[in-house]
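Final report, Chapter 2: Outcomes

The project's central promise was a pipeline that accepts a single protein chain and returns its three-dimensional structure in a standardized token representation, suitable for archiving and comparison. That pipeline is now operational. To close this chapter, we reproduce one record exactly as it appears in the project archive, with the input sequence first and the structure output second.
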Amino acid sequence: MHMPALSAMRFNEQNKALFVRLVSRHGIKMKAAVSVQRKILELIYIIFKTDKPFNDYIQ
């Protein structure tokens, strides 16, 4: 999950904003990266359980 989180932090504006906010608050980049990983895992679970397609604009 580390590499998808790095890609999401780079190209997804919402994940990038989450990462920047957490790094500015805590100063620990790995802690912020794990938070993005958890957000991605929760999104995967929701998509799996609801059988709805991923829509990047409604996150």
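Archive annotation: The longest helix spans residues 29-50.
This record, like all others produced under the grant, will remain available to the consortium after the project formally closes.
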